[in-house]
Structures are given as structure tokens and as C-alpha cells.
Amino acid sequence: MQKVIPTLKISSEEKSQAFYIDALGFRVDWEHRFEPGYPVFMQISKGDYLLYLTGHEGDCQPGGLVHFLVDDVDHFYQTLPQEKLEVNPPYEMIEGIRMLRISDPDGNELRFMNTKK
């Protein structure tokens, strides 16, 4: 299995936690700050999915893109709290691949997708 942890740039810890934790159901595994009041670097997870979120300048640029392979993207979509997210239903962009596109508060794009069986 591939082991990679994408890092996404965030500008507001509060908005990012509301999006990733409250709306998408990730959890915070750990947080690091060099000193109180400094930007956060954190690991969040949901099942086997891991992401790093960073407020540090120079770690990466906003506007990243991460693809998540899920068993059933339509079921995943149905489990999302629609009142907390502005998200369109999954669609077939490429023949045989269903995809759900969600943008976080900083313009990073998350694509949840599965292939037809």
C-alpha cells in the first residue's frame, strides 16, 4: 500500500477545523507549534486517510489537490452533513470514475472518487 501524507496550506485554524473535523469527520491526531501563538502544523485523519495541515509560510502553497479513493462515493456523499458543506452530488467525469469535488476554505480541492465495479 502506498504511504504518502499530503500537506495542505491553511490560513485559519478555526475555519479549517470546522471544515475538516466538523463537516468531513476527520479527527485531529496531533498539533505542533514552536511557541504559543505561532502557526499550527497538525495531522488529521479519517480511517486510513492522513493529511497534514499547515499554517507555516514556506511549507506549501494554497490551492493543493488531493484524491481519495473510497469504496462508494455516492454513499460517502450521503453521509456528509449537507448543512455544513456546499457540495454538488458525485458525477462521472471520466467514463467509469465517479467523483465528488469539495473545496476547503483555502481553495484546496479534495476529490473523493471510486471506479465502477
TrEMBL record:
Family: Belongs to the bleomycin resistance protein family.
Keyword annotations from UniProtKB, A to Z: Antibiotic resistance
SUPFAM superfamilies cross-referenced by the UniProt entry: Glyoxalase/Bleomycin resistance protein/Dihydroxybiphenyl dioxygenase
Domain annotation VOC: ranges: 1-115
InterPro entries: Bleomycin-R, Glyas_Bleomycin-R_OHBP_Dase, VOC_core
Pfam families given in the database record: Glyoxalase_7
One GO term (biological process): response to antibiotic
Protein name per the record: Bleomycin resistance protein
Record lineage: Bacteria, Bacillati, Bacillota, Bacilli, Bacillales
Domain of life of the organism encoding this protein: Bacteria
Keyword Iron-sulfur set for record: no
